[in-house]
Write a structure and sequence with these properties.
It contains 5 helices and 10 strands; from the N terminus they run E-H-E-H-E-H-E-E-E-H-E-E-E-H-E. It is of the alpha/beta class. The strands form 3 sheets. It has a 5-stranded parallel sheet with strand order 4-3-6-7-8, with helices on both faces. It has a 3-stranded antiparallel sheet with strand order 2-10-9.
């Protein structure tokens, strides 16, 4: 099956038995299917993402390289699926969402076809949910039903595979897609589950003690990928 990582890199994912969400209604933030999620869980202020943003690291991709990677990826998506019919791009929050929107934009400019883009929060499907009592869970929205469609899960980094596993469990709760594929801007290796990405922007060998930080203009004000020393985070 396909493949992934977290927003910037840690372990996400779902175990063999995915936790069954006990949802409360959450407001939809976009048109489409608002999926109920628990909104009573919050993260402590001043989380690690803010701290990592200012860290210096070894830059491995700049804005031009990210754009070229996405252009290649959207061509591969269309080639593998023989066009855009029946596709839905689903961004895994957080940075998978703008990446999915960029891929959809490239397809629209190239083919004149609008591919729907969904937003997926996988936190309630993580296999370490019991160890993280203060996770922030955001709305999941789908502009169309996933049943019978080809779902391309999009994330920034593919690491252990647990995030993609959690995302597949979440998608399966929404319907039965024709197939699920995975796209990652960066594949850093160190898989813990038998999951791979169908579409990869760049393979970047890393050590486990390193962090892969993906910054995007939509969320961080800059497009860049850097490798950071975990001990400095």
């Amino acid at each position: 099956m396909p493949a992934h990582t977290p927003d910037a890199e840690p372990d996400h994912g779902a175990a063999a038995a995915s936790p069954t969400p006990c949802p409360q209604a959450a407001p939809a933030e976009a048109q489409g299917f608002p999926i109920a999620t628990r909104s009573d869980i919050t993260t402590p202020s001043g989380g690690s993402a803010a701290g990592e943003a200012g860290l210096a690291g070894r830059r491995v991709m700049d804005a031009a390289e990210i754009r070229r990677a996405l252009v290649r990826m959207f061509h591969e998506v269309l080639e593998r699926n023989r066009g855009a019919d029946g596709l839905i791009l689903v961004g895994i929050r957080t940075r998978g969402v703008p990446l999915a929107e960029r891929l959809a934009g490239h397809i629209r400019q190239s083919e004149g076809v609008t591919v729907p883009v969904g937003r997926l929060d996988i936190n309630l499907y993580r296999d370490d949910l019991s160890e993280r009592p203060r996770l922030r869970v955001r709305p999941t929205t789908m502009p169309v039903d996933v049943a019978g469609r080809t779902v391309v899960l999009v994330d920034d980094v593919l690491y252990t595979g647990r995030t993609v596993r959690a995302a597949m469990d979440a998608i399966s709760d929404l319907g039965r897609p024709l197939r699920i594929q995975a796209a990652a801007l960066v594949d850093r290796g160190h898989r813990e589950l038998p999951i791979r990405a169908d579409f990869v922007g760049k393979n970047i060998p890393t050590r486990r003690m390193e962090l892969v930080k993906v910054s995007l203009a939509e969320t961080d004000g800059i497009d860049a990928v850097a490798i950071l020393d975990r001990s400095a985070a």
